[in-house]
Write a structure and sequence with these properties.
Blueprint (H helix, E strand, L loop, with lengths): L8 H15 L6 H8 L3 H8 L2 H24 L5 H11 L10 H9 L4 H27 L9 H20 L4 H11 L5
Helix pairs in contact: 1-2, 1-4, 1-6, 4-7, 6-7, 7-8, 8-9
Length: about 190
Amino acid sequence: MPRPREFDEQEAVARAAKVFHRRGYHATSTRDLGEALALNPSSIYRTFSDKHGLFLRALDHYLAGESVRCTAALEADRPVREALRDWLYSMVEPTDLPGCFVIHTATELGTSDPETRRRVDEAFEGTTAAIAALLRRGVTAGELPADLDADVTADLLFTTLTGLRVRHRAGHDTQRLRTAVDQVLRVLD
């Protein structure tokens, strides 16, 4: 008769997300995961099938948290420019896990893993759509120019966001990144 699990599976996934975020998929070994999660390899394999299965669960966990954060920031009832500025600033604030797990995953695994690519594409599309919806709200409310192309501008802002997150990961100066945010938001004038 198998022994019951003696660990919190959701907590293990959350810890794994931090390990993968910090180190990347390829640089993280099953041994690294075992140490971080205080699990032996057989427990990892029995629960998550393999490292890739745990990685996908960890990525899903991160995506769920980021989705909530993005929605809260971009759907808040406040001026559009202020909401965008504060949200973009928040992406470059000092943190113990700089950058973005999804963007790191996109650059590391690219198109080589279909399951990961689908998740990354959905996250990118969802964020871009949320930005576009906020911009449309701003146009409708008269906060933004009536001729602003929300979709094109959302693509520009999302591309800026990805660059900010990469530069944040590289340890670039927060004030310089905030200045870049201020400059790109001039496109809304």
